[in-house]
Design goal:
The complex is a heterodimer of chains A (225) and B (265). By secondary structure, chain A is mainly α. Chain A has 8 helices and no strands. The longest helix of chain A is centred in the N-terminal third of the chain and has 43 residues, at 10-52. Chain B is an alpha/beta fold and 265 residues long. Chain B has helices at 51-58, 90-97, 115-126, 131-144, 160-172, 190-205, 217-223, 241-246, 251-264, and strands at 11-22, 25-36, 40-44, 66-71, 74-75, 78-81, 84-87, 100-103, 178-182, 210-213, 226-231, 234-239. In chain B, helix 3 crosses helix 4 (131-144) and helix 4 crosses helix 5 (160-172). The two termini of chain B are 27 Å apart. Classes of the chains: A mainly alpha (225), B alpha/beta (265). The A-B interface holds A 122, 124-125, 127-136, 138, 142-143, 146-147, 224-225 and B 59, 61, 90-91, 94-100, 102, 104, 106, 108-112, 121-122, 125-126, 154, 156, 170, 174. Bound molecules: adenosine-5'-diphosphate and magnesium ion. The site of adenosine-5'-diphosphate (ADP) has 11 residues of chain B, from strand 2 and helix 1.
Chain lengths: 225, 265
């Protein structure tokens, strides 16, 4: 990383010099977000199904899961995975530990979104599907989810935006993403205002693109109805 | 009306001592009733008397606590293990459900599918029929209910009467052993009721076994082979339409009919 003379270049000159590096670390941030979004959705779907199950122990399990992950700080969860698990011989590299903690955390929020979306579909839809002889899973797949995901989309996009911002927390366990890169540059140059401003701009671009994408998708799905 | 003279009575649906409770509420009280092949049976009675619940026990949307509901001799939702009756496997229940058609008051069409896709859905995903074959049957069935020109429409683009006819086609396409109707015209604007009733009459003429909950007494008089009157979860009487409308012979039924005719005029 070319630190020599960064200060002499002034804020704009320095930005151009470090842009490739910041962009690379922003890509890591995006990777965190996408991985956590995908696994978070999978976790969220499973937890949502547990919570909607008629079988009490499943219900309780799902509820406990959400209670824990929404009721404790994400930072604590990241530390539990990265520093806590090695105590039991499970050593995960920073990227994996961070992605895992983010996935588990967003899974809890997404499960609430998914459950609310599924429960917003009138019961008559499930009854009609089951009456034709569909199994519960088939009815979910063919009838309930295709209707529910349209309603879930806006809150899911919001959750992904939150995820993008929350991914900055994994910098504390040494995963070099945008936040940690900015911190390193700040301390090397003693110009934290510059570099944290650049970080903020990158995050803003990311969240704006996500939000726009969501609005666009939403509009497309509306046409469809 | 569709019974062949001299044909043997073959039970398609049999309620044997059926009782059901919702918590403390005794919704079905020892119901015994038989519907034979090709018969059209109309169930009527005051609101809350258990008509919908009774209908929904036939495809096991409502499990029962006592008795049995037999479809072509097989108890739905139950299976014998040794000398005990236990809940049937989900696969068996699904299989039997796919052979029972039901039409709901609120249509319950799948809004994300076209009329054609709605009718094909069960054939393709439950019966595992090749798409081309399912499409042929679905088109033919939609044409039968007078919607040959509405196949590519989504439910939201159809009138209530058209939606209900799609729902009837969706059930018919599966060639069910029995067709259940739960107040199929109650959610419709008055001017749309006729088109649905005439499709139901046509279904009856084709020889389908039908169990119909309705307050359309014109339909009951013209199409039903038998009328069943329910009150408080009990079947109070069964009779021929002419007899029922001349004098049902039971105070509660007389009162019910009087109220209905009063409102109709
Ligand atoms: N899922 C349910 N849980 C509790 N009570 C119910 C449920 N469904 C129906 N009931 C009650 O059972 C009784 C019979 O209902 P229903 O079969 O819908 O009557 P009908 O169709 O003749 O109007 C009513 O008192 C109704 O409130
Ligand atoms: Mg009812």
């Amino acid at each position: 990383m070319p630190r020599q003379g960064l200060v002499d270049l002034g804020p704009i000159g320095a930005l151009f010099r470090v842009a490739p590096y910041l962009t690379r670390s922003f890509v890591v941030t995006i990777e965190f977000t996408v991985v956590a979004a995908i696994f978070g959705l999978a976790v969220g779907l499973i937890i949502a199904l547990l919570k909607m199950s008629r079988y009490r122990p499943f219900k309780v399990l799902g509820t406990l899961y959400t209670w824990f992950f929404r009721g404790t700080p994400l930072l604590v969860q990241i530390f539990l995975v990265y520093f806590g698990l090695p105590q039991y011989g499970i050593n995960l590299p920073p990227f994996l530990a961070g992605a895992l903690a983010l996935s588990l955390n967003s899974g809890a929020y997404l499960s609430e979104i998914i459950r609310a979306g599924i429960e917003s579909i009138p019961v008559g839809q499930m009854e009609a599907a089951r009456s034709m002889g569909m199994s519960y899973g088939l009815a979910m797949r063919r009838v309930i989810i295709p209707q529910a995901y349209r309603r879930m989309l806006p809150p899911i996009v919001n959750e992904f935006v939150a995820l993008l911002k929350d991914s900055s927390l994994v910098s504390v366990i040494g995963a070099v993403e945008l936040m940690l890169a900015s911190r390193q540059l700040s301390s090397a140059t003693a110009r934290p205002f510059w570099f944290y401003t650049y970080a903020a701009v990158y995050y803003l671009i990311g969240t704006s693109v996500f939000t726009q994408l969501g609005t666009w998708l939403e509009r497309r799905l509306k046409d469809y109805e | 009306m569709s019974k062949v003279p001299g044909a043997q009575d073959t039970p398609v649906v049999e309620f044997r001592g059926v009782s059901k409770w919702f918590g403390e509420l005794h919704v079905l009280n020892n119901v015994n009733l038989t519907i034979n092949r090709g018969e059209v049976v109309v169930i009527c009675g005051p609101s809350g008397s258990g008509k919908s619940t009774l209908l929904r026990t036939v495809n096991y949307l409502e499990p029962i606590q006592e008795g049995q509901v037999l479809i072509d001799g097989h108890p739905i939702g139950q299976r014998q293990v040794g000398d005990r009756w236990v809940e049937d496997t989900q696969a068996n229940i699904n299989k039997m459900r796919s052979e029972i058609g039901i039409v709901f008051q609120s249509f319950n069409l799948f809004p994300h599918m076209t009329a054609l896709q709605n009718v094909m859905e069960g054939l393709v995903t439950v019966r595992k029929m090749p798409v081309a074959e399912a499409e042929g049957i679905a088109k033919q069935t939609l044409t039968q209910v007078g919607l040959g020109d509405r196949m590519e429409h989504r439910p939201s683009k159809l009138s209530g009467g058209q939606q209900q006819r799609v729902a009837i086609a969706r059930a018919l396409a599966m060639r069910p052993r029995v067709m259940l109707f739960d107040e199929p015209t109650s959610a419709l604007d008055p001017e749309l009721i006729g088109e649905v009733l005439s499709v139901m009459q046509q279904v009856a003429r084709e020889g389908y076994t039908m169990l119909v909950v309705t307050h359309e007494m014109g339909f009951a008089r013209e199409v039903a082979d038998r009328i069943v009157f329910m009150d408080n979860g009990e079947v109070l009487l069964e009779s021929q339409p002419e007899q029922f409308f001349r004098d049902p012979g039971h105070a509660r039924a007389r009162e019910f009919l009087g109220r209905l005719l009063w409102h109709a005029n």
